[in-house]
Backbone:
């Protein structure tokens, strides 16, 4: 059975263009054995440095564990953790795993039990929150009343004393006060299909089941990291879900903090407006088609099938560069979802994927998807030079569960993985095109090259339209020999935003400007390079080593 869920969140913070890297992380390892079948297993962290001279410290106060080391850019280190770092069945624990660094890193938690591996991206502190929604039960699991066999919510508190509440059906069913860096575990019981977690201060939330993923007559715990409500979205695309028979067809759980309506998609619900949650079975007739769903408000979307659960990520954002780890020499598959017209430019390391890949169009969208087998012994960088995409990876041998790959960068770049969110700025000194080029370089920047639509949009978001200056230089000009346009950063001229009747002939202009007028469309014009204008500059980028 193959379940594929789409897409990846988009979150931009400060000077960072990444989603999954940061300098402060908190996580925990829920008990990873069915309570009736204890089997020895290993837990570890995969730590990857984005920049050289990165110092990383891992602390677990509850077991007096501390580790520190320094790494260069691009280095991944697997840190084995003591087995007693894993949570037991206590309600409150001091086994919070805290990861701190002086520079940007990514963190992946790994649990291995027998031949089964489960990985989970540890989100940086800025992607934690105070309100979360998730599933409260798995409808197709056996009806076992023992709380040890129920869904479990693990709440990881951070720096402040915190009151944490669990709500089902809008009613508080459990609550606890947690001190700084404590963990609280809640067993979820009852008939409600969804659960809500609310706290006074920032927390991270995991939801797990001790016997969820079923394979070869054995069951294994599954854990998902809930996204804060503030990062949810209202648009989702679910690619094909091949199943063995109709009984394997997953259910769809939609959760919101208010009533919602389905604005786009097949008629899944009875009536146009739903309560704050709805659990529906997907019609088997839709199993070979594609679901593109748009709701009237932000929601959490969860797919629940026999022995699997996947938190579907909103369509609102994608990434441009992803890190896929080789985990304990285990085979891994990657699911790629990208604009159909850009599918042949997806890269694995320095080279594009083979054009012979079997890309499958997602009906009703401009997207296509494919699955590739990756080498099991080395990490992989999957990236696209000109558009955003989604990458999911499978941990399990049966490929039943797909998790989002580590998103290193959201900004497409022909050079590779651009790690720094660079904000274009208007130089306050006027000059010719050549003088402005020098003036941009002086403060360790460069004249802006708008080589794709994302950069154009980024510029428009950061520069307010104005009447003065009306135009500014950009890093686009003609070659003297053949008069072809070229970007200073050597990216191909594929995307353009010329104004009407532009560009004019070379006699009228060899250099390019962007309009800053009140219309706000930031169109381009060809101008004489000798005009005296301000320029749009951008800080120099940092490219992750491939």
Residues:
């Amino acid at each position: 059975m193959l379940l594929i869920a789409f897409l990846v969140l988009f979150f931009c913070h400060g000077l960072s263009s990444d989603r999954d890297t940061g300098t402060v992380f908190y996580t925990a390892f829920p008990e990873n054995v069915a309570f009736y079948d204890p089997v020895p297993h290993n837990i570890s962290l995969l730590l990857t440095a984005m920049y050289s001279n990165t110092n990383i410290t891992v602390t677990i106060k509850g077991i007096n564990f501390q580790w520190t080391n320094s790494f260069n850019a691009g280095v991944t280190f697997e840190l084995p953790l003591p087995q007693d770092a894993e949570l037991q069945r206590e309600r409150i624990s001091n086994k919070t795993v805290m990861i701190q660094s002086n520079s940007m890193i990514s963190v992946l938690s790994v649990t291995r039990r027998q031949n089964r591996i489960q990985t989970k991206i540890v989100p940086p502190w800025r992607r934690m929150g105070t309100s979360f929604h998730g599933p409260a039960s798995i409808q197709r699991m056996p009806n076992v009343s023992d709380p040890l066999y129920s869904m479990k919510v693990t709440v990881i508190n951070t720096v402040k004393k915190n009151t944490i509440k669990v709500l089902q059906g809008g009613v508080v069913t459990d609550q606890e006060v947690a001190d700084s860096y404590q963990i609280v575990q809640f067993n979820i019981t009852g008939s409600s299909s969804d659960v809500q977690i609310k706290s006074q201060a920032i927390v991270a939330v995991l939801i797990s089941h001790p016997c969820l993923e079923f394979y070869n007559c054995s069951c294994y715990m599954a854990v998902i990291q809930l996204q804060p409500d503030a990062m949810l979205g209202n648009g989702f695309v679910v690619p094909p879900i091949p199943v063995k028979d109709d009984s394997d067809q997953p259910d769809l759980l939609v959760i919101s903090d208010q009533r919602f309506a389905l604005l786009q998609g097949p008629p899944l619900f009875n009536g146009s407006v739903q309560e704050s949650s709805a659990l529906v079975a997907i019609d088997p007739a839709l199993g070979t088609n594609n679901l593109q769903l748009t709701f009237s408000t932000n929601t959490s979307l969860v797919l629940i099938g026999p022995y699997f659960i996947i938190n579907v990520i909103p369509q609102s954002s994608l990434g441009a560069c992803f890190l896929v780890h080789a985990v304990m020499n285990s085979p891994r598959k990657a699911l790629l979802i990208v604009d159909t017209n850009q599918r042949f430019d997806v890269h694995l390391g320095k080279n594009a994927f083979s054009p012979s890949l079997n890309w499958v169009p997602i009906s009703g969208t401009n997207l296509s998807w494919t699955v590739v087998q990756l080498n099991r012994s080395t990490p992989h960088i999957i990236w696209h030079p000109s558009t955003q995409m989604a990458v999911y990876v499978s941990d399990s041998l049966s490929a039943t569960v797909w998790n989002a790959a580590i998103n290193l960068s959201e900004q497409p770049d022909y050079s590779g993985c651009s790690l720094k969110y660079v904000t274009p700025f208007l130089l306050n000194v006027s000059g010719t095109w050549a003088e402005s080029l020098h003036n941009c370089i002086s403060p360790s920047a460069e004249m802006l090259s708008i080589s794709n639509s994302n950069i154009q949009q980024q510029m428009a978001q950061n520069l307010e339209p104005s009447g003065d200056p009306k135009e500014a230089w950009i890093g686009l000009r003609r070659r003297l020999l053949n008069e072809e346009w070229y970007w200073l950063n050597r990216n191909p001229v594929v995307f353009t935003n010329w104004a009407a009747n532009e560009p004019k002939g070379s006699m009228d202009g060899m250099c390019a400007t962007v309009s800053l007028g009140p219309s706000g469309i930031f169109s381009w014009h060809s101008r004489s390079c000798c005009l005296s204008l301000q320029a749009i500059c951008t800080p120099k980028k940092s490219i992750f080593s491939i």
Q: What stands out?
A: The mean pLDDT is 82.
